[in-house]
Specification:
- The chain has 7 helices and 2 strands, in the order βαβαααααα.
- It folds into 2 domains: 1-52, no CATH class; 55-163, no CATH class.
- It is 52% helix and 6% strand.
Length: 169
């Protein structure tokens, strides 16, 4: 696990799973060249990188658990995981810049189950975080009440979700 240091830019707070063979460049988290080199030190293994804001340590626990759920998904069915990521990427132009885009993103089965795993751990360790339910970036991590589905259910839901995706206008 790599923990890039926060820079002098605006606060950054996120975590990301890098499957084996996937590099930090291009795309993914916004990281410096040194941070990317640290993340990519051994690309033969799964890595989880994170940048944290000291004001949201409860979220860091949930974000890391969400990324570890993605590692579990990858390990269980790499082909299905890759297919879901490709399909999710094809949906990105439809929702990424929309005001309601986060709702669609969080409904994607892989993301939904990762968020549910993180939210469950936050509740187990810290209890409900009612005051953070409406946090603009981290709200779903605090308010999600469901447990993650089984891996077979995740792949089945992914196939169903993507076959009914909204059409571009």
């Amino acid at each position: 696990m790599v923990s890039p240091q926060a820079s002098t830019r605006a606060p950054r707070f996120y975590a990301m799973h890098y499957p084996p063979g996937v590099t930090a460049r291009p795309g993914g988290m916004e990281v410096s060249d040194d941070e990317a080199a640290a993340i990519d030190e051994d690309t033969s293994i799964a890595r989880v990188a994170h940048v944290s804001d000291p004001d949201h340590q409860t979220a860091l626990l949930g974000l890391l658990r969400a990324q570890l759920e993605h590692v579990r998904q990858w390990d269980a069915q790499e082909g299905a995981y890759r297919l879901n990521i490709e399909i999710n990427g094809s949906l990105d132009p439809l929702y990424a810049k929309r005001a309601d885009g986060a709702v669609i993103y969080h409904a994607l089965p892989i993301i939904r189950d990762g968020t549910a795993a993180g939210a469950s751990l936050i509740r187990q360790v810290y209890g409900p975080q009612f005051g953070l339910y409406r946090h603009p970036r981290l709200g779903p991590l605090y308010r999600t009440q469901r447990s993650p589905g089984t891996l077979d259910q995740t792949w089945s839901d992914g196939t169903s979700f993507h076959s009914h995706r909204p059409r571009a206008h």
